[in-house]
């Protein structure tokens, strides 16, 4: 189970269950692509924000260097 400790995600066994880090990352990548987020930066893309009527948010994120590609 992933737990957040000391500023990082740690994967620990809980009740004999373990998450496979590679599979979690594969799922995250697929989910981000499906939702219109950049899996490399973990930020939304301009196209996604524009489609939601949030062009002003995309502009602000772009200025801050936090807009997905």
What this model shows, in words?
This protein has about 70 residues and is α+β, with helices and mostly antiparallel strands. It folds into two domains: about 1-35, no CATH class; about 35-69, no CATH class. It has helices spanning about 20-35, 45-50, 55-65, and strands spanning about 1-5, 10, 35-40, 45. It has a two-stranded antiparallel sheet. Strands 3-4 form a two-stranded antiparallel sheet. Strand 3 and strand 4 form a beta hairpin. The longest helix is centred in the middle third of the chain and has 15 residues, at about 20-35. The mean pLDDT is about 85.
Summary, kept brief:
With 69 residues, the chain is of the alpha+beta class.
What's the β-strand tally? 4
| Largest sheet, spatial ordering of strands | 1-2
Instruction: Categorize the overall geometry.
Output: elongated
Integer average pLDDT: 87
Q: Radius of gyration in whole Å, from Cα?
A: 16 Å
Largest sheet: 2 strands, antiparallel
Helix content: 40-55%
Succession of helices and strands: EEHEEHH
- Percent of residues in beta strands: 15-25%
Distance between the termini: 30 Å
Overall structural class, as computed from helix and strand content, comes to: alpha+beta
How many domains? 2
Please report the number of helical segments: 3
Runs in which pLDDT lies below 50 for 5 or more consecutive residues are: none
């Amino acid at each position: 189970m992933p737990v957040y400790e000391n500023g990082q995600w740690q994967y620990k066994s809980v009740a004999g269950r373990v998450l496979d880090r590679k599979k979690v990352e594969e799922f995250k990548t697929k989910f981000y692509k499906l939702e219109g987020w950049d899996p490399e930066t973990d930020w939304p893309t301009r196209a996604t924000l524009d489609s939601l009527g949030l062009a002003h948010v995309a502009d602000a994120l772009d200025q801050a260097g936090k807009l997905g590609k």
